[in-house]
Amino acid sequence: MGQCRLGLAALLALLGGVRAGGGGRALSQLSDDIPFRVNWPGTDFSLPTTGVLYKEDNYIIMTTVDKEKYKCILPLIANGDEEEEKDYKGPSPGELLEPLFKQSSCSYRIESYWTYEVCHGKHIRQYHEEKETGQKINIQEYFLGNMLIKSPLSDPDQDGKENPKEIPTKNIEGQMTPYYPVGMGNGTPCSLRQSLPRSSTVMYICHPEAKHEILSVAEVTTCEYEVVILTPLLCNHPKYRFRASPVNDIFCQSLPGSPLKPHNLEQLEQQQEMLKMPFRRVKEEEMHSTKEEKFSSIHKPLAVGSHQQLLTVGTTHISKLTDDQLIKEFLSGSYCFHGGVGWWKYEFCYGKYVHQYHEDKESGKTSVVVGTWNKEEHIEWAKKNVARAHHLREDGMQTVKVVSHFYGNGDVCDLTDKPRQVTVKLKCKESDSPHAVTVYMLEPHSCQYILGVESPVICKILDTADENGLLSVPN
Which one of 28, 85, 408, 441 has the minimum C-beta count within 10 Å? Predict the structure, then answer.
């Protein structure tokens, strides 16, 4: 897919003319304030389903000076967004979040000392576990909010349908991002405020690949907190929709009798490449390295507020390599998955180890071995635990839902004086992005962890699991 990034006015000047036709629309005043990226995908192409919204009938017919014609599908931005928001008749944000509250689900954020627990619609808890002499567990905890001050499922001012109030926004990575607030009060009394109860505002923001992660917890004033939750549930509402990039894609498909890309544009790109050549000679080993490169990871850091603290959401995209190659690399342990939210990040190499690490510009990388693989130890563990769980599909076929593996002999834990250990749960996750991976970690007991690894790639190998949950390359 060819790409060209420029302002819309510059694009039109290059192509030489525009007219509206069919279901398209005429363009109003043009501006280069909004950056665009022009793609030339050909006829075999499907519009993106996440990020900026597109509609098949929102296009213009573009004609170049050489009489080449293209149908260019435009993103719904500016007036288009406003029209789509005005016409929206779907569920309110509260109704979109309803499954999260009715399922009584909880989200966790593990930091160096505190663990935060958000049970949606129930409570927000901040706690720390310590083991005293005799292995007695001492829990230090505060409730930052209990019960709902106002039910998110019945708030007419926030429903986005009739006479909606202005939707609040928060600075996320320099972009004012809309959020849906849920107030929670009646928390643990605060000694610094005459024993008034602690209270929180939970801010739900749209992120299409999130799993209801806690992005941040901040004490905005004494004993009053803001908790930001990433959720895909809000993304179906146009006023809360995730904007994946400040650059807006335009998809131009050639009409019969026209080349894939305008002739003048092809010539311009060739001239630009020729101009680059005298200044940079590609080394032979560089070219070899590029050809041999099989995988790439792209984390999505989000900076919150003025502190600009980078937090990885926990979703990784890996290159669109063939499934067979990818599966072989993963099962051999030569390609490792990375993820995590907050201070700690996690590295999982199948059949090798699980590491927890933090990278700092000044002190470098701090790494903790959470668990290492030993096949015999895992098989012993599998005799006492469920290593392979099934579920029944609608067609009556039984398929593997989750596979669990035991990784022991990690670094010795200061709290227990025993090696750390982790149960890795490999799950199938259907996604619009076939090579997305989500990695997250929980610590239900001190230094005993659960690492969740979910991906469409795993869907292809779960049914190869034997009675011990051991996986193999599909036939």
Answer: 28
Give Cα separations from 64 to 1, 12, 244 (angstroms): 20, 9, 30
- Rounded to an integer, what distance in angstroms lies between the CA atom of residue 409 and that of residue 359? 23
Phi, psi at 290, each rounded to 5°: -65, -40
97-135 confidence digits (pLDDT tens): 988 888 778 888 877 678 889 999 899 999 887 765 555
- How long a stretch of residues is the chain? 475
* Token pair for 9: 């006015």
Q: Cα–Cα distance between 144 and 161 in angstroms, integer?
A: 31
CA 27 to chain centre: 34
Residue 269 has pLDDT above 70, yes or no: yes
Give me the pLDDT at residue 2, please.
45
Q: How far is the C-alpha of 63 from the C-alpha of 16, rounded, in Å?
A: 7
- Please give the single-letter amino acid code of residue 113: Y
**How many other CB atoms sit within 10 Å of the CB of residue 250?**
20
Cβ proximity of 145 and 225 under 8 Å: yes
Q: DSSP readout, 355-419?
A: EEEEEETTTEEEEEEEEE--HHHHHHHHHHS--EEEEE-TTS-EEEEEEEEEEB--SBPTTTSSB
Region of poorest pLDDT, from 197-206, 217-226, 319-328, 347-356 = 319-328
Q: Which residues contact 450 (CB under 8 A, 6 or more apart)?
A: 422, 423, 425, 441, 442, 443, 444
Q: Which of 79, 65, 70, 84 is nearest to 38 (CA)?
A: 70
245 alpha carbon, distance to own chain's centre: 13
Q: Round the CA-based radius of gyration of the chain to a whole number and report it.
A: 26
With pLDDT > 90 as the criterion, what percentage of the chain qualifies? 17
